[in-house]
Sequence to fold (114 residues):
Amino acid sequence: MKLQSQSNAEDRAVSPVIGVILMVAITVILAAVIGTFVLGLGESVEQNPSAGVTVENDNVTLVSLGPNTAGIYCSGDKSDTFIDTVGNTTNCSGSSSVVANNSADTTEAVVREL
Fold:
């Protein structure tokens, strides 16, 4: 007795099509990852300045400096309130926030609202 195959030609064609689609997708993803490393696109991202502070009344004490951070100051009064040494304290009366800036003095980030 001869067994007949239940599948027809249309069913057998599905598997190769899915295989080709998966191989093309893997190739595109691999090319994107290699291209990113070769072109160095991830190296140009600059980290925002960050700092740790404690606040008592209007006195702000610098607790820690993050990477790429030059120091902190009270908003509106950078020249008189700038701190770049951990443990130092400044008075921020009349200021609305404490701001950290990066070493190139091009990026600023609010550390804490007062």
About this structure: The longest strand covers residues 59-65. The chain has a mean pLDDT of 84.
